[in-house]
Automatic annotation (TrEMBL):
Keywords, sorted A to Z: Hydrolase, Magnesium, Metal-binding
Organism: Rhizosphaericola mali
Gene3D superfamilies per UniProt: 3.40.190.80, Fructose-1,6-Bisphosphatase, subunit A, domain 1
Enzyme's top EC category: hydrolase
Cofactor(s) listed: Mg(2+)
Lineage, broadest ranks: Bacteria, Pseudomonadati, Bacteroidota, Chitinophagia, Chitinophagales
GO biological process: inositol metabolic process; signal transduction
Listed name of the protein: Inositol-1-monophosphatase
EC number: 3.1.3.25
Binding site for Mg(2+): E66, D82, I84, D85
Length: 224
């Protein structure tokens, strides 16, 4: 496990170095399938750096990345990677974005890392050992009142007209005066929930590279 964790940390930092290099510059932006689904040269460079670290240590592991999709291997270990979560923020030079990587063993998430180099915040979680922010233990909020909570959400670019989609649910919250924030990075939203800055988080339609890794952070440290 220690070698896995060290590789995870090294990979996240390698991706972050590439993201930081391209930050606050004019970007080459390509839109993927759907609306407002961009990818920049920094996403690709971050992914390449992450892949190089993982493959040099664990060449036989399965990789799933938001940009390249699956690199399938017959292994019980799967790395789930978002080389830059919050790409729209990143492309606009808004420093609320991050590198996020998780490690799954036999279908169970066992490690997760989320690194925002622009705020110098490194979140790390290990199954059975809790989670940390810059090596200090973190805990979820103790707030139990929905009315007094500060929540986070994200708006996907699908499901907008769904009667139980993001807009109707958002309206129900704000009509009750509940504080809601929408910062544009599901990874950081969940990490900020994990460390108690937010009292809760919800979002429609999160994909694996956004949801699974960061749910690990919250699940590991949530009171049972």
């Amino acid at each position: 496990m220690e070698n896995l964790k060290n590789t995870l940390i090294e990979a996240a930092k390698a991706g972050a170095e590439r993201a930081a290099f391209y930050f606050n510059k004019k970007h080459q932006i390509i839109n993927k399938d759907g609306v407002n689904n961009p990818v920049t040269e920094a996403d690709k460079a971050s992914e390449k750096a992450i892949f190089e670290v993982i493959k040099s240590n664990f060449p036989d592991h399965f990789l799933l990345s938001e940009e390249s999709g699956e690199i399938a291997k017959d292994s019980e270990y799967k790395w789930i990677i978002d080389p830059i979560d919050g790409t729209i923020n990143y492309a606009q030079n808004i420093p609320i974005c991050c590198i996020s990587i998780g490690v799954e063993k036999a279908g169970e998430m066992i490690l997760g890392a989320v690194y925002n180099p622009f705020m110098n915040e490194f979140f790390l979680a290990e199954k059975g050992k809790g989670a940390t922010l810059n090596d200090a233990p973190i805990h979820v909020s103790e707030q139990t009142s929905l009315e007094k909570s500060c929540l986070a959400t994200g708006f996907p670019y699908e499901y907008i007209q769904d009667p139980n989609g993001p807009i109707p649910v958002f309206e129900r919250f704000i009509s009750q005066g509940i504080a809601l924030r929408r910062l544009g990075s599901a990874a950081l939203d969940l990490c900020w929930t994990a460390c108690g800055r937010y009292d809760g988080f919800y979002e429609h339609g999160l994909i694996a590279s956004n949801g699974l890794i960061h749910n690990t952070l919250v699940d590991i440290i949530s009171p049972k």
